[in-house]
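Recap quiz, item 2
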Amino acid sequence: MENAVVMDRLTKRFGDFTAVDEISMQVKKGEIFGFLGANGAGKTTVIRMLCGLLLPTSGKGSVSGFDIYRDSEKIKQSIGYMSQKFSLYKDLTGQENLRFYGSVYQLSKGDLRRRIDSLAESLDLREFIDRLAGSLPVGWRQRLALAAALLHSPQILFLDEPTAGVDPVFRRRFWEILYRLAEEGTTIFVTTHYMDEAEFCQRISIMHRGRLIEMGNPQELIRKYQQITLQDLFVNLISGKSTDE
Amino acid sequence: MNKIKFIAIKEVRHILRDSRSLTIAILMPILMTLLYGYAINLDVKNIKLAVLDFDKTRESRELTQKFYNSGYFARPSASSDISDPERTLKSGDANIILTIRPGFASALTDLRSYELGLLIDGADANTAAASFSYSGIIIGQFLESKLPPGAEMPGVVISQQVLYNPDMKSSHFFVPGLIASILMMISALMTSVTIAREKETGTMEQLLTSPVTPVQVIIGKVLPYIGLALLDGILVILFAVFHYGVPFVGSMWLLLFFGIIYIIAALSIGIFISTLVRTQQVAMMAAQITTMLPSVMLSGFIFEIKNMPQVLQYITYIVPAKYFLLIIRGIMLKGSSLHVLWTQAIFLVALTLILLSIAVKKFELKIG
């Protein structure tokens, strides 16, 4: 199976601080990949480099087969990105936000209308699509943001803590949607703090202080370290590392 | 190209939806025009005086000397050609021209009637008013010292003519300055704030993960503000012409042309500021300090540049408003053409290009 994301000793330094330290890994096409780590572990920096928002200091990387140094414009066409912070325009309605992003991705008027229609249906946006985005509750905003990230049917979806501050019912819905997308062939690269969510992933990696300390299938990792839950595994791995240093 | 259009359309939507800011952007210029209506009176020194001495006698040279020794008048720069009085005033080589026709010395001894010519540039009402009264005093003192005590004042009269702003109205003088500072404010302040807002709320990051380049984002975002700035400029000019009776004698197209260049300079400053700050609040303050204050204080709008300490005078070279002020005063009040304004024009264009390239460089760096 092809790799959707490849990183080879990818490194990012900010002055003396090494935010990401020689990370190497691959994410397969159509995989739901969980990217775990405590706050400040460097997850967001990795995502920003993969999405073309930040240039790496050293190392190699590719997304959808495109080099992250040279082909960032091609990468942008093939990815969807959704950050932990709601980053659509609050003074525009849902509809206006989606239309704007559709035009940026150069969808034709007809395609855009059909796409908004189908997303509104599948993400259940209908009742609030004409309200100002700023007036929506968090869960609805995140659905709208997901719709914006999916407008151009990206091959890879980067989600940076998409369910932060969202209620459990909606979190369940959100993951159902992700599963459906993955079945349709979309690769999903997601960071999260919720360990129950991490268990939904086919593979996870755990990042700590800029380094990758473990990677694999959640169930296999739990067995490997003889833990009961992923939560225990995560806490033990991170705190074990912290006392080592 | 299309993407720029879509970003611009979105920006117009933001502007229209934020009715409070829009009201301020349109009402404030009018309000400021009213406020500045109160005359500003300031001491004037180093008025550039050109003397056309056709009498060429000891007396005429003495009078000239008395002007220059008074401390209020300075000689025009050696390179300037003062043979054509009107051109001299238009180009700003001199603010006032004293013409001493032949027969001045003999008129003094024979106590014949005689007319001294004084041509004053009224575009700058402050300087004009000061020139008017200072020269009256200097000539009066000179005559007193030349005539025997107790003698009647001879028939020497001063024939004064104030060009371009015959009534020396200060409204004529402050309106161009006001336009310069309002254009600066709208363009620099509003653009830096709107870009900072996208950074602050994270929408810029979202936008840059989509297939648009930073340059497309910037161009799309600032385009509507060029329109808004021009609208404000036109509003103030209309208000000035119909309410204060300020003349508009020059070419409107020439002014529009320079207005757009000046707006681009201001936008560049706004873009540059937005790359340095993270929040709208800081952007607003930075824009006020770097653009509003200099364009009011260091442009020659309120304070004469030539009366400033040397250090400040050097700083004025990088204030775009300084050049635009000379251009807009020249065009509105004197009807100057590119022929006389070319030095200011070159400075303004060069400064705009420098500011624009710095801004674009800095913006791309920041994103990369």
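The CA atoms of residues 9 and 23 of chain A lie 5 Å apart.
The beta strands of chain A are 3-14, 17-28, 32-37, 58-63, 66-67, 79-82, 156-160, 187-191, 203-208, 211-216.
End of item.
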